[in-house]
């Protein structure tokens, strides 16, 4: 990867990371930090890298217990690209 920066006409510093051939392993949280004599600030963003097309994957769900009359929330952790729909059956 290549890190670069330039200054705009307005005086803003634009910094960037350039990854020529992005791979799934390049996904993750990236953080940018700017610092001067007054202080430091950061911003982070999550980058997700998908294969062009891949088979959907659903992670195994653990056994779930519930108490009658109480609220129940069940999650379905699905991955793959693209995901067109997630459906439920009983």
From TrEMBL:
InterPro entries: Ig-like_dom, Ig-like_dom_sf, Ig-like_fold, Ig_I-set
Keywords in alphabetical order: Immunoglobulin domain
Entry protein name: Ig-like domain-containing protein
PROSITE patterns reported in the protein's UniProt record: IG_LIKE (PS50835)
Native source organism of the sequence: Diploptera punctata
Domain Ig-like: 56-90
